[in-house]
Every structure is written in structure tokens, then in C-alpha cells.
Amino acid sequence: MKNAFIYWDNSNIYHEAQRLAEEQDGTPGARYLVRIHLENLLRLAHADRPVKRAVAAGSIPPEMRQLWNRMENHGIEVKLFDRGGRGQGEQEVPDRWLQLCMLEDGMDHNGDPGVVVLLTGDGAGYAQGEGFHRTLERMQRRNWSVEVLSWRHSCNRGMREWAESHGVFIPLDDYYDAITFREPSRAGYEFAPRRDQGTLDLSRRPIAQQTL
Q1: What is the pLDDT of residue 32?
Q2: C-alpha–C-alpha distance, residues 118 and 132, integer Å
Q3: The CATH number of the domain where 27 resides is what?
Q4: For the segment 104-137, what is each residue's pLDDT rounded down to a tens digit?
Q5: Which phi and psi angles does 89 have, rounded to 5°?
Q6: Is residue 187 part of a domain?
Q7: CA dihedral defined by 78, 79, 85, 88, rounded to 10 degrees?
């Protein structure tokens, strides 16, 4: 069984879940209460395979500190960025840091490639030879297997179609009830009723085949 290398763009996954929440839950205001269930999404990503490395990029709002701590407790390497800060170099943005991690792993494990599990729908920069899509292509040419996990509505079409023909595309929508939950509303701000996460069923979760 190949090792899984997980690369998690938290802002993309979380904010697009917010966009989908009201439609999926049928409840106005659900976007303000929807949360990602870390353990279930992480398990959906590795699908009970050994995890060689897991990294996540996000931003530093204090209210997210609990999430970052929980990620780190699950062995995920977390890198936080101040998206509103001034004077940041281009290489410091979360997407580029994740891509750098991918390229480093591609080089360090060139003799024993694993499976890239990418959690994002961001395919920007492809025409300029940049971005997640280009990085996936580089790794796939070096015999890495590829899996992209993203919300259908937000995944770059070119990256999704490439993943479908060269690896696996997993729409997170199919697991929405298991990988999200709703927090209870604060008293006086009744946006939507609480909802616990459902049971994660991996029986139909596709697995990228070994390319060697």
C-alpha cells in the first residue's frame, strides 16, 4: 500500500463549504455555523492508508486557533499566514508554500513515490506554468499517484478533468453530511439548528492506482 502525502488548503475548503452550506442544508444562515469535521475529512483524505506527511496552510484569525491545535495533535504540520499583512513576499502565500512542500516531497521521495492527496479546488496559474495543477502534473510524471478532493462548484474545471483522467477526483459534496457539522446558534442569534456530523462511509471512495 502506497503512502499518502496530504496537502490541505484550509481556506479554500472551509470558505467554499460556507458557500455550499445554505444550499445543502436548506437553512438560511447555515453558512455562519457550518464547520469542517477534521477527523472525518482527514480520514477521507488518507482512506486508512499510512500517512507519510500531512501539511495544511491557513490564516491566523484567533478564533481558528482551536482548529490548528487539533490539526497538530493529529500529526498535521500547520503553517499560518496573515493574509492581510503588508510586506509579504510572494513566496509566503499559503498556496505557494503548499506547492513548495509538494515539490520537496517529490524530490525527497523520488525513488519511492506515493500518492498526492490534494485538498483544494484552486487551479489558478496553470497558463503561466504555475499553481497546484502544474505541480500535480510534475509529480504525476515522476510516477506519483494523484487524488484531488474539492467541492464540485469550486474546483477548477481543467484541474478536475485532468485529475479524472490521470488519477482520481473526489467531490467533497458526496460526503458533505459526514465532513461538516453545524455549531449551535448563540442565544438571540438563531440562524440554524445544530447538526452533528454523520458517519463517514469509505466503501465507495475511489483510490488512485499505482502508476509504476
Answers
A1: 87
A2: 9
A3: 3.40.50.1010
A4: 999 999 899 999 999 999 999 999 999 999 999 9
A5: -75, 155
A6: no
A7: -170
CA distance 148 to 146: 7
What's the DSSP call for residue 73?
H
- In the numeric block, which cell numbers belong to residue 61? 484569525
Task: Give the Å distances, CA to CA, from 20 to 15, 73, 82, 121, 178.
Answer: 9, 28, 25, 14, 14
Pairing of strands 34-36, 180-182: antiparallel
Q: Is the distance from CB of 144 to CB of 114 less than 8 angstroms?
A: yes
Contact 128, 149 (CB under 8 A): no
Question: In angstroms, how far is the first alpha carbon of the chain from the final one?
Answer: 13
Residues 128-181: tens digit of each pLDDT: 999 999 999 999 999 999 999 999 999 999 999 999 999 999 999 999 999 999
Q: Is the pTM of this model over 0.70?
A: yes
Q: How many domains does the chain have?
A: 1
Residue 203 included in any domain: no
Residues 6+ apart with CB under 8 A from 66: none
Give the domain range for residue 173.
Answer: 4-182
